[in-house]
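STRUCTURE:
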């Protein structure tokens, strides 16, 4: 398809797309959780990949802008939104000044903006408690479905019927040619692991802190199934950083809501037992999978393991490059082009593995000290906002404080998991961060808080 034809189709389709976004705003909003798990199945347009959830998030800017312009709503801007705007400006500036491939870096700036806009959309559109609860349920269902797909894909691959969505080859386990484990419809096992870890923490914490007055059978059943399947998917991702993230997230949930957790431990027995059985089966399993999980468990925090050594080597190279532009950085996702040293990096097989997995090192490399400081400010605003919101609720609003604590724990899980494989350029972390930000607007005396 020629560029002229593509532009013509865009001009014709644009009005229809805008009308659809205005008419089906609510439906598009509630589609985001399901679409976010399809990050491994992007749409390719003229060589560029477009993720469906980020595309839909951009479409939701249309009804948001229309409602603001007509006075139907006021644009809500919090500290996290301001930090995101600052980070985007820094990425664009660094890309313009220092990127060896400006066109590629600018395209990646657009990718970041389309993922980060999810936060702005959720904070502005999730107005009432009922809407937050409905969106949370959609997220849980999406996690349940995504985990199930990953588990099924892993089982099929293990019995010699590969259907995609899992890598169980001996070369992946022994030579690290690819990431070993289940991925389902997501980019790769590390991303699948961080996703399942965050929702395992979220569902377990919600189970533990759900007041008895709100513990209807359907809600408890959904949370138990989500906890069991995401925990099993987490095990099958073979991702140590995600395992540690889950442990850290649960620790945060315990510290923030230990009184409630202590009362409702019995709700956790079934999902945790299922995850424990999955670990035991894999540990005792002969063959590649069994040997690999035993290796992972034995080297859980071993910084001298082969994968850890490779990551540390990549980080050291990134830090050396950062010294050339310490204040503003090289520009968005420029590590691979710099490693190619002037060659067309996209022609190299496996160039996508030239990636800085640690989001703090990535921020320093791409946007310098200014960007790293902004990232720390952003993350502090998210976590401190969750802590402040949780403290704001009294004992009379325990049903409102539980989700805030659970979301804060789930986001903390991601912050730990992303120290090895960052996913902040994808949409799914911003669903949880956006939900946490939306809860920050809710207080017991707010209009609509109890709807």
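SEQUENCE:
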């Amino acid at each position: 398809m020629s560029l002229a034809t593509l532009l013509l189709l865009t001009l014709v389709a644009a009005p229809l797309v805008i009308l659809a976004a205005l008419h089906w705003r609510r439906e598009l909003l509630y589609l985001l959780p399901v679409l976010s798990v399809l990050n491994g199945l992007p749409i390719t347009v003229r060589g560029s990949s477009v993720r469906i959830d980020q595309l839909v998030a951009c479409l939701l800017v249309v009804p948001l802008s229309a409602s603001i312009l007509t006075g139907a709503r006021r644009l809500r801007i919090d500290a996290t939104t301001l930090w995101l705007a600052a980070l985007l400006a820094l990425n664009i500036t660094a890309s313009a000044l220092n990127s060896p491939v400006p066109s590629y870096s600018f395209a990646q700036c657009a990718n970041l903006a389309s993922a980060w806009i999810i936060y702005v959309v959720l904070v502005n559109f999730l107005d009432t408690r009922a809407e937050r609860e409905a969106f949370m349920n959609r997220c849980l269902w999406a996690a349940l479905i995504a985990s199930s797909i990953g588990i099924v894909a892993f089982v099929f691959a293990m019995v010699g019927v590969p259907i995609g969505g899992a890598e169980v080859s001996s070369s992946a386990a022994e030579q690290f040619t690819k990431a070993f484990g289940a991925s389902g419809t997501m980019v790769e096992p590390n991303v699948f692991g961080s996703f399942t870890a965050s929702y395992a923490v979220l569902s377990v914490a919600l189970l533990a802190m759900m007041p008895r007055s709100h513990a209807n059978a359907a809600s408890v059943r959904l949370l138990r199934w989500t906890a069991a399947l995401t925990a099993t998917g987490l095990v099958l991702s073979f991702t140590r950083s995600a395992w540690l993230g889950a442990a850290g997230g649960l620790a945060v949930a315990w510290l923030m809501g230990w009184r409630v957790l202590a009362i409702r431990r019995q709700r956790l027995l079934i999902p945790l037992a299922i995850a424990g059985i999955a670990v035991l089966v894999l540990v005792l399993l002969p063959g590649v999978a069994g040997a690999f999980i035993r290796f992972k468990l034995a080297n859980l925090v071993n910084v001298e393991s082969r994968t850890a050594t490779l990551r540390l080597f990549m980080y050291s190279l990134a830090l050396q490059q950062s010294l050339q532009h310490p204040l503003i950085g090289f520009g968005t996702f420029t590590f691979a082009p710099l490693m190619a040293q002037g060659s067309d990096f996209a022609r190299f097989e496996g160039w996508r593995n030239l990636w800085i997995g640690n989001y703090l090192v990535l921020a320093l490399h791409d946007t310098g000290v200014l960007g790293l400081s902004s990232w720390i400010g952003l993350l502090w605003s998210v976590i401190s906002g969750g802590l402040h919101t949780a403290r704001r609720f009294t004992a009379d609003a325990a049903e409102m404080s539980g989700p805030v604590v659970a979301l804060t724990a789930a986001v903390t899980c991601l912050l730990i998991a992303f120290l090895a494989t960052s996913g902040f350029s994808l949409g799914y972390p911003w669903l949880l961060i956006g939900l946490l930000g939306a809860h920050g607007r809710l207080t017991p005396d707010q209009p609509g808080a109890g709807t």
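REMARK: Residues 359-392 form the longest helix (34 residues).
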